[in-house]
Design brief:
alpha/beta, two-stranded antiparallel sheet
């Protein structure tokens, strides 16, 4: 059984995709042990509670320093003894200590085909605004391991999505979620649960399928 923690700051649509996949048993041998948010008003916490999953809020505002927050956050996470940490719209910088402790055990979903439209400042609608501004014909989503950089870790899965004439950042965001994010995030978790994913020389290698 792969025990996971899902970290989310907002609505939790990717969290819901994972919850639905577990319920449908398309994600076999996976258990969501906890959902953690930095935002007490995050709808992701309500989704977790409805699914009878532990829902925890730890806000940086409650601590005198970012260092104190990072320590408390890591201590709380460690208390659940999870095998994998899933960042699903989590808008908090992960501390180097947490990355070191969970090396190749933290994954993130990003709404573009990395290395396009990624890095500092590229999150939420900003990604889709820049994609439309640049005039790309194809965008998509990427699931990758988290390292010390921003969106620089080894890529696990990607899926392309067509950019259509007349798209707005919001319509494109929705299509990327529906056609890519909600599909490849559970798929990546499933591959990891089955032991098919490992990292060699900074790249993801699929084994044993």
């Amino acid at each position: 059984m792969l025990k996971i923690a899902v970290l989310a700051s907002g609505g939790g649509t990717n969290l819901q995709a994972i919850i639905d996949a577990v319920a449908a048993k398309t994600l076999a041998d996976v258990e969501i042990s906890v959902v953690i948010s930095n935002n007490q008003n995050a709808f992701a916490l309500e989704r977790a509670a409805k699914a009878k999953i532990a829902a925890v809020c730890i806000s940086p505002k409650e601590f005198e320093s970012r260092e104190a927050f990072n320590r408390a956050f890591l201590d709380k996470l460690n208390g659940y003894r999870v095998d994998l940490v899933v960042l699903a719209g989590f808008l908090v910088v992960i501390s180097p200590e947490m990355i070191a402790e969970y090396r190749n055990r933290i994954i993130n979903i990003h709404p573009s085909l990395i290395p396009s439209f990624c890095g500092k400042g590229f999150y939420g609608l900003n990604v889709h605004k820049e994609a439309l501004k640049r005039g790309v014909k194809v965008t998509g989503a990427t699931v990758h391991f988290v390292d010390e950089g921003t969106d620089t870790g080894p890529i696990i899965l990607q899926r392309a999505v067509e950019v259509k004439e007349g798209d707005t950042p919001k319509t494109l965001q929705r299509r990327v979620m529906e056609e890519a994010e909600w599909k490849i995030l559970p798929e990546a978790i499933d591959l990891i649960a089955r032991g098919y994913v490992c990292v060699k020389d900074g790249r993801v290698v699929r084994e044993g399928e």
